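Hi support team,

I've been running sequence recovery on a batch of backbones for a student project. Most finish fine, but this one hangs at about 90% for roughly twenty minutes before it completes. I'm not sure whether the input is malformed or the queue is just slow. I've pasted the structure tokens below so you can try to reproduce it. Let me know if you need the job ID as well.

Thanks,
M.K.
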């Protein structure tokens, strides 16, 4: 009986080790997840659904679930992504163009290149996404080789900064996972 329990434990241990190989682990929400420095990869349906990488800014003593800001890069097709940004107290429909500073470049984001909400749901408060596909591609390419991202919104009234530490590894891991399906 004791040998059976030991064997069952070893099988379970080996199975668990295989399930987290490469940093991936199963979350109680039914998602496959992996950390890459400042980014968290999340793939729905136990790794068989939609994948995204997210960075949450968690201020000391603030909201520990959503934080005060988040940067989400959602995979829409092989090597194609959609950038989404949540900022606490951001107006539901921010006014004016936005400025993105990344990798020594300054990108002026016109009002027709972004939209309120996420790329999936328009009724998400304090959130916007880049709706222009070529701009998303250009921004993600710049983010891959940069250390930080700064977004200025509301005509300079607000700004948010994100570290890009681990960003390239996070996207590479998602592409590798999707390719292995």
């Amino acid at each position: 009986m004791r040998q059976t329990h030991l064997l069952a434990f070893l099988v379970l241990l080996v199975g668990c080790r295989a399930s987290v190989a490469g940093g991936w682990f199963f979350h109680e929400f039914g998602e496959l997840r992996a950390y890459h420095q400042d980014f968290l990869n999340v793939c729905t349906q136990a790794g068989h659904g939609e994948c995204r990488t997210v960075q949450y800014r968690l201020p000391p003593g603030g909201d520990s679930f959503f934080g005060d800001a988040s940067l989400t890069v959602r995979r829409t097709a092989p090597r194609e992504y959609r950038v989404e940004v949540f900022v606490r107290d951001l107006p539901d429909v921010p006014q004016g163009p936005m400025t993105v500073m990344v990798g020594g470049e300054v990108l002026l984001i016109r009002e027709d290149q972004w939209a309120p909400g996420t790329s999936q749901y328009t009724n998400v408060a304090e959130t916007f996404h880049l709706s222009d596909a070529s701009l998303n591609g250009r921004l993600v390419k710049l983010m891959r080789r940069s250390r930080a991202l700064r977004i200025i919104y509301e005509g300079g009234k607000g700004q948010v900064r994100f570290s890009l530490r681990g960003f390239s590894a996070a996207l590479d891991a998602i592409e590798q996972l999707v390719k292995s399906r």
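--
Follow-up from support: It reproduced on our side and the slowdown came from queue contention, not your input. Residues 1-22 have pLDDT under 50 and may be disordered. No action needed from you.
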